[in-house]
Every structure is written in structure tokens, then in C-alpha cells.
């Protein structure tokens, strides 16, 4: 929803300069491997078109989305020398649209491979694809049984130009999890077999956190997502990434309440002393999760203030008893995501991950982009 900033209940500022810096940092860690970018889910809620344009300007030539419709929406704004990969593959019967919109499917099953091969035969040309292999996540990609079928009959990819073999790490944010090495060894073993037939076959393995596991995980192309947008890539370690988002909500009104008064639905918070409460125009309809009830915080001029009472559909309430009253006028902005309360800190309080906080950010926010 496009609206005047002054009318919006909250402002979401996306710093494309920080995004660009994060991309350069990740590319630097990858050395000769290419740094792609996951821009699925509207670039984690930050706007796939402006985010992708900024990344392309930084040299990114590989963009990953989840669904075909995302690729179609993005293609008109992105040069055709930039590859757009659709990680869910083709919806059944829509293979030809990949040609029309110049995007590349990630083939996850023998059925998808067969449909893509059929289109290649009909068009009498080789068609590009990525083939995903499941190395332990049990989500998408060729199963072990399907992989054996492929290894025993490489003709199933006749007419398919296999650009990359790809797999996905399940536990990369925990650098000590033994599954990382298990998946790596499995992927390396499979690549060695595949490269006996597909000479020079390239590989893609690392997500954001995988980049930080070391060069063995980098292969030819990485697919960072969350780290680009400021989410910490390694659990338990200080994040090297720049903050990309700032979320500010507007105060609607304030009120004085006596000791013992309750705030919000279900009376989940009561004042232990006379208090001042500010109501702010952000709620769970805007992606400010209900699990932040009575545990979230905001900042006003650097002063931390607690969220009190349950998060409502359109509002939250803050205990602003210790804030300068001159800062509490209707329309004043309070910081919800900021350097003092990062996406990861918000997620920890909400009992979730930074990915969910970003992708939940709602359409009612006035989005403002900062770039060089």
C-alpha cells in the first residue's frame, strides 16, 4: 500500500547501502566462488525489485526465488544476463513459461526432470536447469532412490543443460553440528560421480550460514539470503553484517493509568504503580508477532521502553512512564527495529528467528529506501 509517510502508521526504512556492503562482504569471503542472492518472499519482505536492482548493480548475476510467479514479476526489472532460478521448479504444465520469461528451474524430482526433458525434445533444443539433490534435509531435491535412478541412467537428462548440481544445508548456523560435515561429504561424493559424466559440472551448496563454514563449502555458487538483510549468520557469534532495516511505529495517543489498572486484551499486564501508556500503530496484522506480548521492547530517543499487554491486530502498548513527556506527542515515532533492538534481538524475544520477523513485515508500512 503506497501512502504518504505522514499518514502511515509505521515507517520501514530499508538501507540499500547496507545491503550492498553486506553483499560485498559475503563475496569477499567467497573468493573465486560466485555470490548469488536469495530474493524469494519479496526479498525477505524488503522488496524484491529494489533489492535485486541494488544487488545487480553490485555485480550479482544469480538471483533465487521460490516460485515461478516471483520470477515473472521480477524478470521485467532485471537484465536478461542475470539468471533467475526458481527453486520449487515448474508448476505442472507451466514449463513453457520458463522459456517465455527467461528463468531457470531447479528440478527437484524425476517427474520435474521428465517434464523439462519433454519440453526440450519438443523445442529441439537444450534447456538450462539446476538439479537439486537431497543430502539429508528431506525437504526438496532428488531422494536417494531417485538419485540412484539418475546415476544408473544419465539419459534421463538428455536435452537438459545441467548448469549446477545443488543441495541445501540444514544446520549451517550451528558450526559445530556434525550434520554439516555429513552433508558436505555426501555432496562431494555425489559430485565426483556426476562429474564423470557431466564434465566440469558446477555446484551450489552454501546458504548464508554455509559461507561461514569455510572454503570446502563454497563450491562455485553460494545463495545467501538472510545475511544480506542483516540477520546474524552464525549462532552465538557477533554478527559481521550491517543492519539493513529500521522499523518505526507512530504514537496514536497516551494515557495515565492508576496502580492496579490492566492494559490490553485478557488483562495480561497490570500496573504496579501509576503509569503512562502509549498506544502505537503497529500490530500482528503488520507482522509484529503476538508472541512479543509483554516481552517486546521499543526505544524512544535511545530509552528502552517495555511492551505491556497483548499485541493487538493493529496496535501495541508501551509503558513510557520514564520517557520525557515532550517526546510522546501523537504522531511521534518510536523505534521497534533499530541498532539498539536488531532483527535478531526482536526474534529472540518473540521465540523465533530473524527470517520470520523480516518476512512477516506487513504491507501497511510506508517503505522508504536509502541508497547511494
From TrEMBL:
Pathway: Amino-acid biosynthesis; D-alanine biosynthesis; D-alanine from L-alanine: step 1/1. The active site is at 40 (proton acceptor), 265 (proton acceptor). Its EC number is 5.1.1.1. Residues 244-370 form the Alanine racemase C-terminal domain. Keywords: Isomerase, Pyridoxal phosphate. Transmembrane segments: none annotated. One of its GO terms (cellular component) is cytosol. One of its GO terms (biological process) is D-alanine biosynthetic process. GO terms for molecular function: alanine racemase activity; pyridoxal phosphate binding. It catalyses: L-alanine = D-alanine. Its cofactor is pyridoxal 5'-phosphate. The modification N6-(pyridoxal phosphate)lysine is found at residue 40. Pfam families: Ala_racemase_C, Ala_racemase_N. The keyword Isomerase applies. Substrate binds at residues 139, 313. Catalyzes the interconversion of L-alanine and D-alanine. May also act on other amino acids. Belongs to the alanine racemase family. This is Alanine racemase. The gene is alr.
